[in-house]
Every structure is written in C-alpha cells, then in structure tokens.
Specification:
single chain; 290 residues; alpha/beta; Helicase, Ruva Protein, domain 3; 2 domains; five-stranded parallel sheet; two-stranded antiparallel ribbon; 11 helices; disordered C terminus
Length: 290
Amino acid sequence: MYEAFYGLTKRPFSTVPDPEFLFWSKGHEMALTMLRYGLMTHAPITVVSGEVGAGKTTLIRHLLNEMPEDLTVGLVSNIQEGRGELLQWVLMALDQPVEADEAYVTLFRRFQDFVIDAYASGKRVLLLVDEAQNLGVKMLEELRMLSNINAEKDDLLQLILVGQPQLRDLINLPELAQFAQRITADYALTGLTADETVDYIVRRLEVAGATKEVFTPRTCQLIHQATGGIPRLINSLCDMCLVYGYSDNRKVIDQSLLIEFLNSAKARGIYSQFRAIDTQPSLVDNSTVS
C-alpha cells in the first residue's frame, strides 16, 4: 500500500515473524545462550519468560533450527488445563499414536517406552512447551514427574518451558517448590532498550529497501516509550504510522505525526496497549539517522 511512497520494496513492520528481519538484542542473545546452555548441560528444566510479543517465538524457531542430531524434539503448544490429558499432548508432539479413551497408565507406559527406546538408540528426548503459563499447577507438577525418568546418572528427558511472565509467578508458588528446584537454566526476556529500539526500526527499514530517513531518532525514542520496547508493539505502531503518514502525504515520520496518530487512536478508543509518551515541546527532532 505505502511501500512505493516511502521508497520501500516490501512492508517493513509485519507482525508475522520473518527470519530476514531478524534482530538480536542483548536480551535475545542472552536468552538464546541460556537455552543453548540448558541443552549442552542436559539441564532437567530450562525456563524462558517474556511479555507477549517480546520475541519468544523467534527464539524457539531459531533454537529448533539448530538442534543437535542426538535430540528427539516434541513441541507442545496451545495446551491448556481442561483440554485433554497432558500425556496426550506430549505423545502427539512426539508423533506417537493416541486414542481418546486410553487410560493414563497406558499413555504413561507408551511415553516411558518411547523415552527409553530413544536413549537406547543414542538419543535424548526434549519437550519444548510454548505458552507454558497456561499449564497451571497440576500440569507443571505432572511435567516434573515425567522428567524423573532416568537411567543411572543420565537424564533421559529435558524440558524447556517458554511463556509469559505469569509462568514465573506459577513456578514461585509453594506447591511447585520441587519443580523450581529442578530449574537449572532460567532467563526473563525484557523489551528492547531505547537505543536498541532505534537500531531495530532502522534495520527493518533497511532490509525493506529504505535509502533515506523515514523515522526520526526522536520518533523512535517516543515509540520506545509507547511500546516498552516490545518488538510486536513496535511493529504495530510503526506500521500504522506509515499508513497515517502515507494518507497525509508525509514522507518522514516525525514526533508531531506520531503524537497526532496516538491522539487520534486514543480518541477512537483503540490501541489501548500503547503507553503514554513524553510530549514536552522542548523535545524536538534535531538529529538524523545515518
């Protein structure tokens, strides 16, 4: 829609994950390092948490693309209490047959045999659980019990849990003390810093073909304030600013345009996820992104 107007070859701020636009902040690098550390040390449980849109899915995809050959991986996602037995989800993630009316003992035996057979063939089993904050206390404790399957000194099953900050609140409950004790790799992913937000916006524009300034540095700083540095929110706000600027024939997204858009959105009762920003008149755009 607006690509040609801004001299772009593609849409730069889609909220759909795209490896071409990959941007590694210090936080993302540290989170990935912690995930790798958990794999290398055979950590029983590794936990990474972060706000919605913080880049957890990007981390998971990157990790899955570099899994060692001695790992059999099952990705469990969208699981919630009351939507089937945990073992049913786990077995399906491992491409194992599951019947709706099978007894728990039968499911556990099939899972245990799968893990032991994998170990006998020189492999370990990794369960990667996305949106793990939806599991609840009962399922998290059940996961811990599953991770007790071992052979002599070897842990045959590793768990990686990725979820929103509520996951950390769950794990800190007294009834999950044993679960928490088994966590040996842990990282809380936060939003981008103000400087990283500037670099993030500039990089995505460059990948999309920009050859001149589109967002001023001050605008980028205000976008950081409005979004808390959460990549998905940055993408959403930048994209709408480009649409707003295109409709008003403005080729540079400056502070005034951003404020106009946010005020308009607030008046219409939309985009309530954006935070209030500092709109002091003395804070003006007086620098250029190189």
